[in-house]
Design a protein that fits this description.
By secondary structure, the protein is mainly α. Helices cover about 70% and strands about 5% of the residues. A two-stranded antiparallel sheet has the order 1-2.
Length: about 260
């Protein structure tokens, strides 16, 4: 490509590294990333028409096949729609699949606002509180011990990235302990929320926040091990609410 997107050791590669995935490096993924971020950022507002195929081919210096595949992927995510004799139109935000990992990553790459973070925290509360309650009734002894071990290792994390990776492992284990395949599938949303929150704030550099965060996760683990669904819900809500408050304070401080 003649004009690759900015260094993706920002949200893209960072999220992939924490989640244990290898980011795609092919031309299709690069064009997709560039266009996805541009749409979310508002470079191409809702209702606007994307540049013509010939313009995009010149901009990215890729084959027509690569460009068409990227556009098809964006269409499948509900972000664009191609119409004969009109062009490719950016669809309203309400049509976008916000549960899609790429769409979420593009929001964080373009710099989400406080309202977006709040909405994400609210949907996490709707999902993860019930996950914690179900896990309290269905977890295996091995899963209960794995959660306690995760909480312990969070306290030993030496870097923000190590902490985020262990935090993600904790929440994945809660989802798996529900025994509900839908909960495990939705954990992609949680994965993106956690890894993105890492880019805004991490308790690792603040000993007091670190101690409180580790204790809060240990509380979840202990409630699940004890089979206490109500306590598991309350403890999970506290973790999510505190995480949002920390990120919000960081964003407001930077905007001051």
């Amino acid at each position: 490509m003649a004009s690759p997107p900015q260094d993706q050791r920002t949200s893209g590669e960072l999220m992939a590294a924490i989640a244990g995935r290898v980011p795609l490096r092919n031309l299709h993924s690069q064009v997709l990333w560039h266009l996805g971020v541009a749409i979310v950022r508002g470079d191409y507002p809702e209702g606007s028409i994307l540049p013509s195929d010939s313009e995009l081919l010149q901009q990215f210096a890729v084959s027509r096949t690569v460009l068409r595949e990227a556009l098809k992927t964006l269409a499948a995510k509900g972000m664009i729609e191609a119409r004969a004799r009109i062009g490719t139109r950016v669809l309203p935000h309400a049509r976008w699949n916000l549960f899609d990992a790429d769409v979420l990553a593009w929001h964080f790459e373009s710099g989400p606002d406080l309202a977006f973070l709040r909405s994400l925290s609210e949907i996490r509360i709707g999902i993860e509180l019930e996950s914690a309650a179900l896990a309290a009734g269905r977890r295996t002894p091995e899963q209960a011990e794995a959660l306690l071990d995760c909480a312990r290792r969070m306290g030993e994390a030496a870097t923000p990235e190590e902490f985020a990776r262990t935090d993600l492992e904790f929440h994945r284990t809660v989802a798996e302990a529900t025994g509900n395949p839908f909960m495990a599938s939705i954990s992609t949303l949680v994965e993106l929320a956690l890894t993105a929150a890492f880019t805004f704030s991490s308790p690792v550099r603040d000993p007091q926040a670190m101690e409180a965060t580790v204790a809060a996760h240990a509380r979840i683990a202990q409630a699940i091990k004890a089979g206490d669904a109500d306590e598991a819900r309350d403890a999970m809500k506290a973790v999510i609410s505190t995480g949002f408050a920390r990120a919000a304070a960081r964003m407001e401080g930077e905007g001051a």
